[in-house]
Every structure is written in C-alpha cells, then in structure tokens.
Amino acid sequence: MAPPPITARTVVAGRVLVHRRPQRSSTAQAARSSSSGSALTSRDKENVPPPAQQPPAPPQTLMPPPSTQPRPTSTNRTEGEDDDDDSLAQSDDSRPEDIEMLHALDANASEATRAATGTQEFFEAACVAARFLGHYPDLVRVLTEGLTYVVEDVPLEERPLSANDKYDASVETDIVWDAVEIFLPKLIRCAPYILRHDDLIARIAHYLESITKYVRGNDLTRIKSNIMKIANIPDPDSVFEDKSNRGWNSKNFAELLVPLTDLDAFKADPEGYEYRGTKYILSDDWPVCFYDLKKVQPGKAKPGFLMSLFLERIYRWLITGKGSVFNAQYNAARRYRGRPSVAHNGKVKFVTLPSILYAAIIGRHCLTSSTNWSDVDGAYWSGEEFVKSVYEAVFYDPDWADELEAWWTKRIYGPGGEGENDALVHKRKDTAFKRFLQECDGGNPRKRVKPNAAPATGDEQPDASTSG
C-alpha cells in the first residue's frame, strides 16, 4: 500500500507535528534549545538508576586524527562519486568537552560523580527524553539512522515515514527521533564524531536504555498505588491494595482490559468471558481503557482511540504532575509548590504519540494483577507489539496521528500549547486594549512636557505632530 501524500503540518509549541511534512519549521530549534537544559525532577532524584553492565571502556584518545577515523559511506552517494567531500568530515561541530562527557556516561554514577564528570545535565535531559522515546525503541538503530539524517541532511520527505512503501523498523525510528533532537541536542552537535565510533553509539544506547528502566520504575511506583482513583474504581474494603486481586480477577478491572471488539460480549457475560481460553487477546486488540467510549462508533476502531480520561490522567500524573490530574484550573507552565513536574523542568508544552504510548503501557500494567513489572498479558498480548501496531497505524494514517497530538497538546497545555508560543497567543487575541488603540485612528501620542521642564515662553514653534 502506497503511503499517503506528503502534506504540511501545524506547529505545536515550537515543533512541527511529526509525521508527513515536507520541512521542519524553523521554530523547532526553539523547542530543542528550550528543552535541552531541562532539569531533573525531584522525584527522579529520589532513586539511583539500577545497576547495569557498561560497555567496554573507551580508548584513551577521545578524538583521533581525521586520517585515522573510519567514515561510513553515505547512503545517498552514487557509485563512483568522489568521497573526498564526505559530509561527515565537513560538518563536525563536536566540542572536546562534549565528546569527553559522552565517553564518561555511566548509568550507575551517583549525583556527585555525575557532577564531577560533567554528565549531570545530560542525565537530567535523558530522564525527560525517556518519556518521549517510549519503552521499546531499538536505540542503536535510532541513534545510527537518526544521526545519519542530521549529518547527511536527509529531508523529511525522504525519511522512512514519508518515503517508505511499507511499514518497517525504520519507520519507528523516524517517529521517535524527534525526542533525541529536542531533548538531547549534544548528540546532534556531536553527530559526525558519534557515527565514526560504533562503540560510542553502543555506549549511549545502553545508557539511555538504563535511564528508561530507571525512570519507568519511578513512574510505576507513582501510578500503581493510585490506579483505583485514576480509573474511578471503588475500593471501600481496600481489596485492590493487593495487586493480585486486580486485572482479570476483578470485573471492574477486566472491563478496562477487555479489547474494544469484545466489549459487548464481555458485558453480556462477564463470568463467561475466557480471556485465556476461547477469547485470545492479541497485541493489536486495543483495550477499552485507551478509548473514550463517548466517541466510539459501532464497527469502527479509530474514533476515541487513545483519548480516554483514564489515559489522560495517567499522562498528567507522569508528565505535568499529580496536582494537574483532578484540577481543571491547573496550569502546566506554572511553578507550583512541591516537586516540579517533568513538563515544568523539561520546558515541555507539547504532547507526542510516543509519550502517549509511554503512559499507556504503564497505565495498562497497573490495571493487571501482575505484582512485578511485565508488559505481557497472557500468551499473545505484549506492550511492544501493541506499540508497533499503533506505529503501523500512524504510517497508514498520519493525519490521524497529527490530529491526535494536536488534541492532546491543547487538552494538556491549553490554547497556548497548541502550535503557538505565548507571544503569538497575545498577538492574535482580540482585547479591549487593542480595540482602544484602533479607535485612536493610529495617531501618535502627544509629546508630554516633563514635570520639571521650564515653562513655555510663547516663542516656540508648534510641534507639527501635535498641532491641530
């Protein structure tokens, strides 16, 4: 099936919605620069990342002479083309301190060690980026292909999401790549150097995977104990405090886990619904908990998908803070007392599909009876395959994804987050003050006499700008 035509997309909080678009807006750089210095939330500082085996130590010489640096062959170069003008050699803006920092990345390092090695800022940015990369990207592939986009200046219409004839793993790379560009700009600056060193790509990928596990552990803790409140499930006797009583062991939880296509059958006979027997649940059986049932239309799967109040509350709790979950007047851009949110510290004013799916996987797990982290349910449902099914849906209907991200951005951040910065919102808003100025016929204000100015003698010539 051929991909849909390329069309322009709206800008959301300084970034272009990531799907079929001929060019990225120049304001996307503003989103990257404003988010790159994001601070780590206090919640994330509570724990130390889990132990993780590190790749072999890098060589002592961090930046070998150009003549000794192997350069990958450009995918855009034709046979026989001169290789002397390789873009990898021409566009290296790497700074020695950035290169040294990347080689020093250690997911097990303490905050003091991170401060000493200059990796603290990158660690904080990576903790924000993890929520926007999602749980499952092949980060070696993402870094290799994404940094190649940058170095070879691959236009958006030639990248997999726009150019491929069918869905494959490179499409997923294209979908999640924006998170790296926005939140980890040092990788972009060092792209040519990184691409010349496979061991460094492996080190960075391993580091980001470890950070994702660390962040996910913190986020699961926050949601797990509050899932009944988030899902509006009554628990007067605290039965569901024991997680083994949740999931398919409870009608209330099961009704949220059941696939949308099986909802009628489940409601007709909840006790007879055998999810592990005759009713196999597959990864592309999208569950009820991700749907706004008020928007669902009979026989259709698209309306209301990923628009549920349950999912919105999960997202708010993780990204804009628990104070925003049940407070309609909450302003995600404002600094409240207590621990700052991911959105506040990351200067985030937009929602992306990978970040929605990050929240979705955590929310669904907390509905199950599994006492430990698991993204599988039964023999056929897995979170990774579910995410792939959604990304494939994006490939065949990018307009749906663009509209969904715009809907979420406005829902979470209000009108100021939907494609416009605050200055543009104020500029376009019709106000009484602007109407007052219009009623002045565009005339210049009269020149005022300073209070301590000498009195006029009567010999002065009238000011042409104020004379009537």
Automatic annotation (TrEMBL):
<protein>
    <submittedName>
        <fullName>Uncharacterized protein</fullName>
    </submittedName>
</protein>
<dbReference type="Pfam" id="PF20414">
    <property type="entry name" value="DUF6698"/>
</dbReference>
<feature type="region of interest" description="Disordered">
    <location>
        <begin position="440"/>
        <end position="468"/>
    </location>
</feature>
<feature type="region of interest" description="Disordered">
    <location>
        <begin position="1"/>
        <end position="94"/>
    </location>
</feature>
<dbReference type="InterPro" id="IPR046521">
    <property type="entry name" value="DUF6698"/>
</dbReference>
<feature type="compositionally biased region" description="Low complexity">
    <location>
        <begin position="24"/>
        <end position="41"/>
    </location>
</feature>
<feature type="compositionally biased region" description="Pro residues">
    <location>
        <begin position="48"/>
        <end position="69"/>
    </location>
</feature>
